[in-house]
Amino acid sequence: MNVTIVGLGLMGGSLALALRGKVTRLTAVEQHAATRQYALQNRLVDQVTDNLLLGVKDCHLLILATPVRTILRLIPMLPNLRANGCMILDIGSTKNAISEAMGKLPPPFRAVGGHPMCGKEVAGAGAAEGSLYEGQLFILTRNPRTDKVAEHIAEQVVTAVGARSLWLDPKIHDEMVAAISHLPYLVSAVLMATVAPQADGQHGGDERLWSVSASGFRDTARLSGSDPAMLRDILLTNQTAVLAQLRIYQKQLTAVQGLIKRGDETEIAAWLQARQTEYTVYKGVMSKE
After folding, report:
1. Residues paired with 196 in a beta bridge
2. Predicted confidence band of residue 121 (pLDDT cuts 50, 70, 90)
């Protein structure tokens, strides 16, 4: 099978490394010249181009690994670029809008939505790792262009990169990741927006604040270093679910503010104990995965 990956960032580059040697030919479409050079020098792929038409010309499987809104721009272009169709798999972080776009493709195309639940807070092909997907959950979603052949090919890709599949409805996927992925990023970003001005010595802050920070701040702030382009598209294509989670989070913050204002030792202890218990349950579930 000839495979073309559009986008050689962290996720696309890692996918290329994971598939290397397991396909007939591996091609990449990448707009940044420095990334194309890096991909060839480090043998991420067999060939790389900035021309989408050339990249999809002979592919059997097309993997879209760009930010979500770029994927949404690319999908309607494919019938003019590949009249006889091909198999399409995307690895975008939101799925409902992409699944709707895939469903509008003509019948020669097969398509499955995908979202590997892994990554790093750093972006770019230089951060790619062939082992990034190993042992990780790889969510798959159906659309009107999904048939048994498409399902089989998608499952083969998941197996080839060492991941494990879970099929979800696109809408349910977006609701879930808003809670466990998009909200944590926003919490981290808001924390950074809160603390960074206080450490800005040129504008009245105290630069020693960064030195005082330790693992608690570092672990919570880590996600704020994620790729801004990727997160921008996530927030714009999953607005309803993200806003719903923010409302729940704001309600919890308001409740905590009330506890602190009242200064009731018993109430605060009970609230903290409940959170610790919930985290213990979470850890138990994850240890079985």
Report:
1. none
2. confident
Rounded to an integer, what distance in angstroms lies between the CA atom of residue 270 and that of residue 137?
Answer: 34
Give the burial class of 11: count Cβ atoms within 10 A of its Cβ; 0-12 exposed, 13-18 middle, 19 or more buried: buried
What does the pLDDT look like over 18-30, one tens digit per residue? 999 999 999 999 9
Instruction: Output the pLDDT for position 122.
Output: 80
Residue 32 pLDDT: 94
How many Cα atoms occupy the beta-carbon half-sphere of 29 within 13 Å?
21
Beta strands in 133-275 (DSSP E): 137-141, 164-167
**Residues whose CB is less than 8 angstroms from the CB of residue 170 and which lie 6 or more positions away in sequence, other chains included:** 95, 96, 98, 99, 113, 141, 142, 143
User: What tokens were used for 154?
Assistant: 């998608």
Angle between helices 148-160 and 10-19 (to 10 degrees): 90
Q: Residue 227 pLDDT > 90, yes or no? A: no
Instruction: Supply the DSSP symbol for 223.
Output: G
Cα distances (angstroms) measured from residue 88 to each of 2, 8, 40, 150:
12, 16, 24, 8
